[in-house]
Amino acid sequence: VQPAMLGLWSLLLLWGLATPCQGLLETVGTLARIDKDELGKAIQNSLVGGPILQNVLGSVTAVNQGLLGSGGLLGGGGLLGHGGVFGVVEELSGLKIEELTLPKESLKLLPGFGVQLNLHTKVGMHCSGWPAEVKRDVRVHWVSARGGMPPLISSCCSTLLGPHQAWFLGLLPTPLFGVVEQMLFKVLPGLLCPVVDSVLGVVNELLGTVLGLVPLGALGSLEFSLATLPLISNQYIELDINPIVKSVAGDIIDFPKSPAPAKVPPKEDHTSQVTVPLYLFNTMFGLLQTNGALDMDITPELVPSDVPLTTTDLAALLPEALGKLPLHQHLLLSLRVKEAPTVTLNNKKALVSLPANIHVLSYVPQGTPESLLELNSVMTLRAQLTPSATKLHISLCLERLSVKVASSFTYAFDESRLEEWLSHVVRVVYAPKLNVALDVGIPLPKVLNISFSSSVLEIIENAVVLTVPS
User: Looking at domain 255-469, which CATH architecture does it have?
Assistant: First the structure.
């Protein structure tokens, strides 16, 4: 028995008529660059083991199961097996199907045009020693979709025969010619074309996962939508994704954008890339500030014993200004952030500038606190950025703190005396509280379910770039 030659299903995915820009992110969106290898691997994995294609084919790996098994197309009583429609054709003409294999993909990106996806399969047909070659020809096109990834659907799925097969059909008796022709051009496409639709479903689902709504805990949610049509280069697909931040009530949060675009570095071959814009960092900290998550009352119960937080400690720092302050009383530091923090991404560093009003009061657990001192401070915190599978996590530590007196005193004093004391309190008590609030992280778009936990992180001007090898 001679096996048939490889058939070919060719899908031309028309994706847009532009090529990616030269690495300049003009908008505030998140830029995702999907490597060709990553897309091909995801499609092939879905074809082999994914549930979408198995809904059509069933389990083809188990013996006597699925499309090719005893209960499938080639089994006894199956459409192509003994007792089926094609079984009748075999009895009359000797033409029979002996092998039908799963498709294997090969992917090619066409810059400025689209994506060509070839699905190779083998249909083993035999008649009097002649192998039969069948070619699947499929055309697909975009269907417009508002606010989401435009899906692909097939517009044509036809059967083509090679010259030897056409010559072979011409030798068949007229009655058999009609039966075989109907099988090849009507029955067989009716069986195999749904597999093509399943492949399109795989592609649409894989790309569609980039978009969607991600909860941000008590802060609200982040929704990813497609800002423009996908763009094609010879190695990757570029998606300009618009991140929309919403409050818990569903209102769109719109914080100031960066005045300068981010110059995204070129993507290396065989890697995928996601760029997180400065806008998302500023929006995240802006949400924390408006929700009061950055405010804190630092009381003696919250600080370790080695943190000086008494009137005795304060009087030692400012003896002239505070005069005859009662000693050995506990202090309360009321810290309020009344303006949105400013995030700076540049020179491989991420810094957060946090303006805060610090009110120093004498602390009486059962009484009314007495105001002693009011300060305007600016805390500069260094951000440690750590990617996980689906998020970019932020951890802060104090780099420096500066203060200015907001209330008036009879005696002038040097505010720098307070900076070391307050810096110690911020490092030990306030920064850990901030990091708990930041535990929600910045969600990353689901690019073909790629895990970013092992990505290489690079801080550039006004953006953070995560690069994952394919």
Answer: Super Roll (3.15)
